[in-house]
Design a protein that fits this description.
The chain has helices spanning 19-24, 50-64, 70-78, and strands at residues 2-6, 10-16, 33-39, 44-49, 86-87. With 91 residues, the chain is α+β, with helices and mostly antiparallel strands.
Length: 91
Amino acid sequence: MQMLYNSDSFAVVQIDMPEALQRAAGEDVLSRGGYEIVDKFARKEIYIEGVLAETFEQGVTALIQTSPSEEEMDDYIARYTSLMQQPVILH
């Protein structure tokens, strides 16, 4: 797990599943893992993986090449807020 982005509005964490765990679970050893995106104001989150995670990663990679401001990064991440349904619950 690695924190990739943290602003006043959003947090993005990359989660990778080690190959050994995938094999133990009987899964194909393809790239597994994804991104957890937290909307701090709405107090909701989403975990994306697969094609959606790849699309997210490609968009972020393209945006980073333009040296974006925090506002531009937040605007890109905000595109995923409509998918968020899981409330953030603190323990």
